[in-house]
Amino acid sequence: MDETASTVPPFLTEGENSVAVCLPQIKTEDVSLYRATVTTGGRLVVRDGKPVVLGYFEEPVCTFSLNLRIPRRRITLTAYILQFGPPGGIRACMRYTPRGSGITGATMLLERITEAVFLVDIPEADLRILCACPENVVKFLARAGFIKKIERDGVRFETGPNAILLSELPVQNGRFCNLAEFPVLQMLYLQGMLLPGHPNNTGRRPMIIGLRDQVQAQAEYIYCGNYGITDPDELSPEDRDLGERILRIKRWFAFGNFRPTDELLDLKTIDSPIIELRDGVFLRRQGVNRYEFIYRGNTLNVDLNLGPNQSYGCPYTLPSVPARREGFSVVHLGEGDGWDPERPCMSSIVMHHGEAYLIDAGPNIEESLEAVGLGVNCIRGIFHTHVHDDHFVGLTALIRAERRLSYWAAPAIR
Q1: Residue 68's CB: how many other CB atoms inside 10 A?
Q2: Helix (H, G, I), strand (E, B) or coil at 14
Q3: Could you read off the pLDDT of 272-310 as tens digits, one per residue?
Q4: Of the candidates 85, 70, 71, 68, which has an alpha carbon nearest to the alpha carbon of residue 33?
Q5: Residue 39 above 60 pLDDT?
Q6: CA 155, 161, 162, 167: dihedral to nearest 10 degrees?
Q7: What is the CA radius of gyration of the chain?
Q8: Cis peptide before 87 (omega within 30 of 0)
């Protein structure tokens, strides 16, 4: 057997009621079955040196594992049955682990962004999956160099992820875990995936992956973040004509119409133990917030769970400048936006005779308050201006205060 030629990954061939494991460029007589395990229905035989699973399967997901001996190395293969029975026959995906040299799979790269947040890059499938999207995740990505400015066809735009795997837990350790608005807006507009005539608008949509409830919640939240209020009566309860005029302006900025989120994004619901994302990339759920990516024989695992007392951290370091509490003053906590990796988002404190009133509660609000010598228990109340997440995600910190806070906002915001 030609050692250098054996570089093509194993693959599966699927029949109406069978799955065969094929080993390209390896002679049949060189393969022997070392150990085989089948779970949930079916039976395993070896035919002409090729392992084959025969028979109908009793459950939608069947797994069989093979240990194969090949000269100078051993290969472990695990196949997952995704679909069984007529009319479509069997569909399956596979992962394999080479022990020794000779067989390699496609490239998958795993990068840690911050605690319990990862980027999975699969270049051959053009997938860059952000795994979890807590507050300020766009800033974490920019500081780590995964969002950069490039130029193509005379157009400057940003790089970055084009898919998001949502956390199954919407809140961990007092912090929101699924804040997809800014990552999605970065994909649609700063990467140009939605812009007409943009070189990065290839027709592929950003992908949102997650359990049904989380995907639906993010779809509604992204629609509101992208378009705001789209009901003229809600915009202007006492003057519908004014509401309609405002909507005409908003539609102009929305390229003519307000599109449902499922037209803007590719929404992938995890409704079975294994789902195909696209182009042969599979995702297997291993437990709460634990996932395995499978592509052409390679696998990567991610765990989106924060440990006890862990937090997502803060992407920037703030100087310590204690605020004066006597008299009347306005203290700015941040002058940045949701994209600026160096500065906190816009927020201020109004000081009045020792009482502190917060105007908006953005990302990392606890760190911002600490930088001016305050904590959540120092806040008397909050004025909430609008519902983009860079103005409200700090509310989870404020509700842990030891006293009840006053809250002021327009009816549409409340």
Answers
A1: 26
A2: strand
A3: 888 899 988 999 999 999 999 988 777 889 999 999 989
A4: 68
A5: no
A6: -150
A7: 26
A8: yes
